[in-house]
Amino acid sequence: MPTDPDLTLRPADGSDADLVAEVHLASRRAAPMPPGVHTDDDVRHWLAGRLTQDTVWLAERAGDPVGYARFTDTWLDDLYVVPTAARRGVGSALLDLVKAHRSAGFCLWVFEMNTPARAFYRRHGLVELERTDGSANEERAPDLRLAWPGHDPVAFFRGLIDEVDTDLGDLLNRRAALTRAVQDHKPSTNRDPAREREIVEALALRAPTLGEERLTRIVHAIITESLEASAG
Ligand SMILES: O=C(O)C(=O)C[C@]1(C(=O)O)C=C[C@@H](O)C=C1
């Protein structure tokens, strides 16, 4: 990518809120993304607040704002380039800056339908970690979590594994307590294969990468160990 002598990157502060918001609104309107669910004024107000919390860098060409990146310690929340400056190295310059500032790695969300952005991130070495059906985002549009694993990928991914295991530990604990609680209300403590099959089928919808065969073994182990734990 040739370096553009007219392109400069600088940290943005509260006085840049309007410029950042105009870049955001123009870029988003042109991108293959679901329509925003907030009014332009709400976006301006929200971004002005984010500028006081997050790190924001503005890209300018010959003094005109053409893009910006907004990031925290672990997430790249926004990377936007105005349509008139697309494919001229602005996004790459901003992403390189974020990589330099967050060398331990970071994650981001991208809409599944935003294929140009996904291709851009793939070209820049980001990897796809998980897909969602969109039920947890405001636009209700399927999205993907991507990661740039930084200078020590093992440490980066282990950090993410530890986060998931914190939730998994809580879930296993809650589930074991329920397995225990229901036993007192059953005529016999015999295993119920039809019910266990139902559980596997429901989980397979949420964890398609594992598939029913593996999930059958996993569910069997969880229930067996939970029953054993409850038997003391
Ligand atoms: O639903 C029941 O009947 C239970 O005993 C609970 C449970 C479970 O932990 O989900 C445990 C054992 C059965 O084989 C099926 C399901």
Question: How would you summarize the topology of this molecule?
Answer:
Blueprint: E1 7-11, H1 17-30, H2 40-50, E2 55-61, E3 64-71, E4 76-81, H3 90-101, E5 106-111, H4 115-123, E6 127-132, E7 143-148, H5 153-183, H6 193-206, H7 211-230
Antiparallel strand pairs: 1-2, 2-3, 3-4, 5-7, 6-7
Helix pairs in contact: 1-2, 5-7, 6-7
The site of prephenic acid has 11 residues, from helix 5, helix 6 and helix 7.
Overview of the structural elements:
Helices cover 48% and strands 19% of the residues. The protein is built from seven helices and seven strands, in the order βααβββαβαββααα. The protein is elongated, with a radius of gyration of 23 Å. Bound molecules: prephenic acid (PRE). Prephenic acid binds at residues 179, 182-183, 186, 191-192, 195-196, 199, 223, 226. Keywords: Acyltransferase, Transferase. This is GNAT family N-acetyltransferase. It comes from Nocardioides anomalus.
* Major sheet summary line: 4 strands, antiparallel
* Distance between the first and last residues' Cα: 64 Å
Bound molecules: prephenic acid
Mean pLDDT score = 96
Proportion of residues in extended strands: 15-25%
CATH fold-level assignment of the largest domain: Aminopeptidase
Q: Superfamily at the CATH H level of the largest domain?
A: Gcn5-related N-acetyltransferase (GNAT)
Structural class: alpha+beta
The stretches of 5 or more residues where confidence is low (pLDDT under 50) are none
Please identify, by name, the CATH architecture of the largest domain: 3-Layer(aba) Sandwich
